[in-house]
Structures are given as structure tokens and as C-alpha cells.
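Box S2. Input/output pair 1.
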Amino acid sequence: MSWVVRLIVVLPALAGLVGLLTRRWVRTARVLAVGTATVVAGLALAQWIAPTDRADIATLGALPLHGLGVPLHLLSDAMSALVALAVALVVLAIQIFTVWYHRSDPRMTQFVATVSLFASGMLLVVQSADLVLTLVGWEVMGWCSWLLIGHESERAAARRAAYKAFMVTCTADIAMIVGLIALSVRAGTTDLVPVLSQPAAAPLLTLGLVAVVIGVAGKSGLVPFQDWLPDAMEGPTPASALIHAATMVAAGSYVVARLFVLYAADDAARTLLGVLAAITMVYAAGLAFAQTDLKRLLAYSTLSQVAILLGALAAAPAAVGVGPAMGHLVSHAFFKALLFLGAGWLTALVGATTLVVMAGHLRSAGLLRWVMAIGFASLAGVPPLMGFFTKDTAVDAAFEGLTQGGGGLRAGLVVFALLLTVVLTAAYCTRAWLLLDPPRRVDPALLAEAGPVGSTGAHRATEPVSAPGPTGTMSRAVGSHHGSITLPAALAVAGLALASVLGTFLLLRLSGSIHLGVGTAIVSIALIGVGAFVTFQMSNRGRVDAAQRLPQRVRDGAVRGFGADTAYVGFGAAITALARLVVALDRDVVDAYPRAAAVSARTLGFVGERAHRAVPSLSLLGLVVGVVLIAVTASWWG
């Protein structure tokens, strides 16, 4: 089985590199991307069926670092096998869908090659038993996300979103590097097994775990790093599905789960994680309700759902473990990839991503209507879909942390945020469904829905691309995607829908990933009903947009993320001003004294040169002649 684990990581990387080298051969690139994804999915299935429970699978050999062991091992256990299978299946569906969605894109080969590299980075994080390899996979994903988000580089909005994502996540990565170094120095090795075998509380451990939480917050979009993720919707829909579903934003949750033994022994780091997760899940779910663009709605939904599983890791008792969080990670991977690819399919049919244009178009969409219904229902946690089981397990784990695990205020905060998020999630899912598939004739007032900056009129496929980032609208020309969907692409989307229904069975091999509490299940179902009913009433029984009930100022602010982008710009300007001040002080103060000495010496030399006539005097000539005569006489008589 060791060679299976190695191939799971290596094959996507090779496919990406070969795809970049053969980018002029479109057919070869398509076959290579889809074929490799299929093989990797098969290998991941084999590992899931029979994981080896080994954490010493060799790769390149140990790095020769003095005083620090760096074995560069991989591992295979039930958790890595489950997550690797979910990642492989989602990547396979995305690659198949991309072949259709980007069939007219002249740079499609670069796109699918980058997807392969991205998948390799995530799979390396999943299969890593070494903190150095974890960091390598972590950074590969960051680089690939910049390429994928900015794939349509001719658009200023896409370039801005790509740079924003790269800068925000890389800023948080500084803390991640510090945290991993602290954990490695404490254990004397980067090998995960010795690192986890020293859970005793210590200042260096707290520093490392807190720094890792900050790094995870950047990649997962926790407050205050949340605003890059909605703007990342400027990238193509398959890229959005990849980043949001099973790779980049989920990677941080997986890293925390791997280090769970250490977090269970450190209240400070776990409390920070719980506070950030609680704030983010409620904040993002509330903003999702007000979005005017379907992709941005799904982006804020991702922030909220990832915060749910991180909240489970923050509140669950040590005895419960990581099962609830990892179960919801897998569930979210399936239904969120389904919703994003379904949104891309609908965009190709309608010609825009704004809800006002999409309103009512899902009713006659056939298969697409059913798969989107499954996706929204699973996201909302409607039984008996996979999302219901995993979300309720996460809620139940947080309740156990509150009542039995000694979680105290941290667990109480997470539980309250989870229950409120259940209501908000049901609300924004119901609102989106009532817009896309209204139960009756839509009131004309719905079609007059204003954009986030007061603009009116629907964005059509023939119109130019909208303004970047902060405006919140991302409708664009999608004429190259028009046409009937191919059978493989439709089957890929349908496969994700099937996984969202039956994927619960995949979780049976991971202990604790499915554990329904009767009380929490009843409470969750009741809260889902409340959120759906209130939204239905706010929409005048499906005749208008429920978000129109919100004050226009609140709605516009929510679409803009309540000024988060402005805060980022201000923070960047402050850092730039500070850098300029440091340069000025270094140039004009620190370097002033050496420069002054040099200038003084040069000035004195110039003055002396100007004062001298540059003509030898008679006395000097006499002295020289005398010295010569004495020397000659002495040598003659000697």
C-alpha cells in the first residue's frame, strides 16, 4: 500500500507539470488531466478500503539538518484515506466539467494542468506525516490559487482578486511558518508522530498552536481574513468549486485535526480558534442572505460551513476527537462542489451570475434543477441527506463539549453560534431557491432588484464585465460557454449529487464522524423549519426577493462585506507608509553620519588640491638634487 500513497501525491503533480509542457496539444492535455484524476480516484478508493495505519512511508529520504530530524514521511490511516478519497472524487468531477466549460478557452490546457498541481498540493497535505511536507503542500496550493483565480488575466477584476487572495493568505502564512517551526523545535523533529507525543502544556507549544490558528484563519477565510474568498469568485467557476469545496479552504481544518491532540491540551489556542470560528460562521451566513450574486452567496456559505467544522474542533471533547469535523469536511466537499458546478451550468444557460437574471430559470432546467435542489437541501441540513448527518454530528459534538467535556464559555459560544447559523443557513438557501425556482409567477418588483451600488437593469452575457471586487457583482460575458452540456459533464455533476445523498456511507470507516443526538437532531430540524418559513413569509410566499425586506443600506453594506476591502486597502497603505518612513530614516538618519564623514574628507581634499599650485618649488628641487648627490657620492666612495 505504500506505493499507492506515493502515487496519490505524485501522479497529479506529474500530470500538472507534463500538462504545462504540452499545453499546445489540447486533446492530450484533456486526456492527461481527466485520465490522471480517474487513476488517482481509483488509488484513493483502494486506500480507503484498506488503509495501512502507517506514518513512516518514505519519500525522498531525510534532509540532513543539524539538530533537527526531517524524515519527510507520508502516512496512511482512516482519516487521510477518507479525505483523500473526497478530494480525488471532487477533482475528477471538476476536471470532467472543465473540459466542457472551458472548451473554447485558448488557455484551457494551462487551467487543467494547474488544477492537477493544486490537487497534488492538497493531497500532499492530507498524506503528510512531516510538517515540512505539510508546509510544501500548503504553499503549492497558495501559488496555484493565484493562478486559478487570475486565469482570466485580461480582466482587471480577476487580476485584483488573485493578488488580493495571494497577499492575504501569504500574510497569514507567516504565522503558519512560525507555528510549524515552534512545534518542530519543541519536538526536535518535523516528524508528526514525535510532535504529537509531547502534548504537555508549555509556552512554546502555545506559541506554535496559536500561530497555526492564524495561518489556518488566512487560508480558511476566518475573520479578519474573510474578504479574499468572495472576491475569488472572479475566477472561473471550476476554480471556485476546487478552492471552496475540497482543497484550499478545507486544508486548514485538516491541519488542525492532525494536531488535535495538542490543541486538546492547550486552552488558549483552542479558545482563539473557537472565537474566530463562532464569529465567522454567523457573520458569513448573515452576509450570504443579502448577496445579489449566486457565486458570492456560495462563497460566504463556504466561510460559514468551514467555520462550523473548525468550531467542532474547538468545542468537541478530546474523547470525541476529530470525527465530527472531518465528516462535515467531506460532506461540504461534495455538496459545495455540486452547487458551484451547478451554478456554472446555470450561468452557461442564462449568461450571468446575478440572481436577478437567473430568477425563474431553474424551473425548466431538467436535471440541473434536481441536482441544485439536492445541493441546497444538503447545505441547509435537510434529512436524510449527507449534510444533515454531518452538521448534526458537529452540533452534537459541541453540545457534548459544553455539557460533559469542560469546554466552558468556549463551547457555549460555539454552540450558540452553531444554532444561529443553522437558522441563517436555512434562510439563505430558501431565499436562493425561491429566486431560482419560484413556486408561482414572480412579482415584477423582483426583476427591478437594484444592484449593490444602486445600478438597475440585468447584466446580460453580451455586456462587458462589471467592476472589480468591492462592488460585489461578477456578471460577465460567458458566450464561450453556451451550448448544451456534454454527457460526461452532466454525469460529473449528477455524481456529486449522488455523493451528497449517499456519501454518509463513506464516513462509517472513520470513528465518530456520524453520531446523531436525538435532541440536537430535533432542535436542528426545528431551526431549519423556522429559517425556511420566515424566509418564505418575507418573500411574500415566493413572489419577491426576501432580501428586499432588509434596509437598502444594510443590504448594500452586506454585498460589499461591510467595508472589509476598504480596511484591507487602508492596512496596505499604512504598511506602505511605514515602509517608506523606515527607508527615509535609514537613508537620511542612519546613513547620514558615514556619508557626512565621506563628504567632509572629499571636501578637505578638494580644498587642499585647489590651494596647491601644482608647480614644484626651488627648495623641493634642491632637496631632491641634494639627496641624489649624497646617494651617488656614498655609493662611489663606498
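Box S3. Input/output pair 2.
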Amino acid sequence: MNLAANVRMALGWTVLALAATACGATGGSPDQEGVAMVGEVQQGLTYQVGPGKPYANLQAVIGSLQPGDVVQVSGDATYSGDVRVSRSGTASSPIKIVGVVVNGKRPVLSGGTNTIELAGNYLILEGFDITNGSSRCVYHHGNQITVRGNVIHDCPSHGLLGADTGSGSLTLEYNEIYRCGASDRRHQVYMATDETAFPGSVFRMQYNYVHDGNGGNNVKSRAERNEIYYNWIEGAYFHELELIGPDGQQESLKREDSDVVGNVLYQGYTARSHPAIRIGGDGTGQTWGRYRFLNNTVVMGNASTSAAFRLFDGIESVEMHNNALYRQGGAAVTVLTDADAKWKSGRQIAGRNNWVTTGSTGIPSTWTATLVAANPGFVSVGSRDLTLSSTSALRDTGTSNYPSPSSFPFPSPLPAAAFEPPPHVLLALGSAIPRAPVGVVDIGAFEYGNLGVPPPLPPPPPPSTSPVTLHPTEDTFIRNGTYANNNFGALANLDVKMDTEPNLTRDAYLRFDLSNLPSVSSAKFRVYAALSLSDTVTATLYPVTGSWAESTLTWNTAPGFVATSPLGSLSATTSTYAWKEIDVGNFVRSEYAAGRRLISVALHCSAASTEKMIINSSEASSNQPELVVAP
């Protein structure tokens, strides 16, 4: 593949005849060519995989992938699992691995410990039949991953699993997932995010059909933020939906929040003893988070012992609006139990315009305008047609005002239910039905007489022109010699020094998050620094490549900084603290333009000195490091 790589660098595309000659491929027509993806910046290569194609399987191409590349895998064929994709795309040029339907059949990825592991960043997996991975069928182990338009089924352990470490944001959309899981700890979908490596990560699950679990929960997530939108989730072994705290991360590191909008949660059995939804914690990790449930339809089994919502362990607040809660057969519903909840700031529950069956219990006293009736007016619960009849009690009875508990606003909520969930089928990509209110918004996941036009979103706020001051999301320093395995992440200072003697050299590492910035026009790096005693110490700022975490970084594990690209220097001469700054506008603009929202830098002294530079860290009570950015 060296020839293909050389042609890629020279021309931005390649010719299959050359690549096939270099690889010894025979047969077939030219199938590897340059492509420019619509709306994407970087031009890449197309690799074709399958019978009669240049490559027999995914394993033959994944080591050569670069940003913007597309792998097309022919359907009507089965390919072996244990595929690990560790190459990364970029925000503007992701790597795409796409199944191509042949004779009406998808390509099948089957078997292996992990049928496919997505261990790079900015990857898209689309259009496959994925089955039979002994540990995981799909293993999410990267950041900014999209898994869409797949059928994931008959996985004896997890259907899709997100790693506790090394996993960031994942979008799961337009998939069908069924007959996965085992016992109580293997789930159809089990998601997590690494809050240290990828702070601010989001698990977004939308337009999926998840049903008939063999074990565990249908959907379980420990992600930092969950956005569960417009799914049909049915027939779990335990809970349909479980949203809880982290495993392997400190509970105090982040608050885990969940926005659950426009879903059908259908227990699907004549007798169920487990709540449909559990939130808060499970004894391993607690969220201390905020939860929001809007326009969901929950249909429960006949067992009167189960509740719609079970609140367990650490939680901060929960709100429910426009939800329909119904038990098959019309029996009363236990709306909520929180005897096992540990409220962070007292019991914080809000809710408006929810509908429950007559005789229901566990209705929070803080709910308002709750509707109670014998029959919600679904077209046919037995046939799982949960759209509304013309006489439905859910019609025109919702609200467009969704107040959070006082002092606990839900962050960045979805403005309204803008789509309908799939009617217990696998939807084609992009075919979700928009939802628009017909008169007053209806309660539940469906709108009677829906016109298929989503409600207009509120206009975005005008961009701010005022500078924004960012503090590090993580910072620490490292020290050589006998301290090379020590971590100093909890200290209120960052030390920087070069010394010819062992044990005395120190470098400082800082990370900033640009995610909430609309743009970058200028940037200044500022630290509050002094010397241990009067001297002259100069520290140079460098970009850092590679991952690291404040709580684990040591001299022996630190990623290297780019010594050939200094960003500027700052000097201190006295033991009196003062602000020092470096103009880093060019660097921050280029990182932002490249789609990189987490940037790392290091301070390093290249000349030996007697004294050390001491800088307030983010753990200091005041005068923390700053990145002052003008949009």
C-alpha cells in the first residue's frame, strides 16, 4: 500500500490499477478511486471489499485508512468478526465503513470476541448485519463515532458496549437491535463515556428499534450526558431504560444528565416485576444528575408490583411533562418510587400535563395538571399501535411549558418533540416522521393528525462578541527521576523548572475545552506565576499531542509536546506573583478550524535554573490559569 499512499499524498486520489499491482490483487475492474464526500473537506479513497473485489475482508484494509476514506463492503456475503478499526478520521473528513446491499441482503459481520471494535475517532459504521460476537457485537472504544442503519442481533453477551475508558461521544441511530444480552449484567445496549479523556461527551440514541432482549436491560447508560430521542424500546429482560452513574470514574468528576424525549417504552409481557425505567445509580456509580422526560409513551406489563420510574441512589432532580403512563389491561400504574433514592438537595421533582390510568399511585405531589382516566385512546395496545384515536384522551391536552424544579434547570433541553418514534420497525436512514402539534400538543410520543412538519426551533441567541475566559478542564505537572511515577494532579500549583541534577526537572500540562465557543478570532494564554526565590526563569509553551489525564499523568506516561512548534515564552524574575501571558491566537484558531475542541499545551524550560517557576493551578482558590478567547 506504499504506492497508494504516495499517490494519495501527491494527487489526493489513486488509480486501482496501480494499487492492485502494488498489492498483488487480481481480477475485477478498477474499484479503488478518489472520492470527495459531500459536505466534507478532505478527499479520500474508496476501498471495495467482497467477493470479486480487490479486498477480501475488512481486516485487509483497516490498517491503511486515512481521513475521508470510504470502505464499501458488498452484501449477500458473510465476513469474519474480530475487526478492530483504530485509525481515525477528522470532524470534516470521517472514515466511513459502509455496507452495500446486494441481492437485497446486507453484508454480515459475524463472530469473534468483538465482532467489530471502533477504537479510532470520527468513524461511521453503516448498513451491516452484525451478529454473534461472544463478548460484544459492537465495541465502542473511540470518540465521535456514528453507528447507523445496522441490524445488531443474537449477540450472546452485549449487543453494543461502550468502554468505561477511552470512549467519547457516540450517535446511535436508525438501528434495529434484538435478542442480545444475558442474565442481569449483559445488555442489548450498554453505553459509557470516559469523563477524564473525553469530558463533555454525549450518547445520542435516536430513531432506533430495540426489542426482545435475552438478558439485562434494553438500554443502559453511564454516559456523561444521554440524549434518548424518538426510539421504540420494547421487551427488556429487566428495565427498558436504565440511566445511572459512572463505573471507574470518580462520581465527583462530572454530573450525568439525561434528556429523554419522544420515545415508546413498551414492556411487552403480560407480567413484569421490574420498573420500566430506573435512574440515579446501581451501587457502582451514582449520577447526582438531572433527568428530563418529555412526550414519552410508557406501556407497562400487568404485574402490579412494577413502577414506571424507580429512582435509586444519588440523584439531583427529575422532571416529567406530557408523558402517557398506561398498564396493559387498564390497571392502575405505580408512577414513581424513590424510597431508595439519595437526593442531593432534597426531593426535587417537577411535572406538568402527564396522563395516568385511573387509580394510579405514586404520583408526585409536585406534578400539576395531571390527567387521570380509564383509557388513553390508543388505536390498539394489543397490536402495539400506540397512535391516537380520534377520541383519545391524550389529544390537545399537553403543554408547551416545561418548568424544571426551582434552582435546578435542565441544561440544553430539546425544545420540543420534533419527530415520532419508529412504529416497532427498522426505519430507513433519514425517514423518521417529523412531528408538529395540531392545535395544542398531544400527550405521549405520537400526535393525532400529524402534518409531518416539525415545530420551528427558537432562534439562536446572537453570538457574543465579548471575550470568554476559559479555565483548564485539567492541569498538573510532572517530575523526573525518583518522582517519575508520581502524580501531582491534586495540587494547587504547577511547577516548571529545568535542572541538570536528577529529580528536579518539572513540566506543566494544561488542557482547555473550546466546545462552547461559536468561533475564535484571538486567544491569550495567561498564568499567575512567581519564582521560589529571585532568579530568571523562562518557560516556553508548546502544543501537546496524545491523550493524558490530570489524575494519572506522570513523567513516565506523559505524551510528548511538539518541540518544533513553540507558541511563545513567559518569564519570571521575583517571588512576587504576577500575571504572565502569551498570544496563542494562531494556534487556537487553527485547532478550532480543524475541529479539535480539546487542546493541550505544556510549559517547559529549556535552560537550567536554580529556582523553579510556581503557577497557580485550577485547584487554586483564585487566579487560576486562563485562556481568554475572543469569538
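Caption for Box S3: The helical segments are 2-11, 16-23, 585-593. The radius of gyration is 27 Å.
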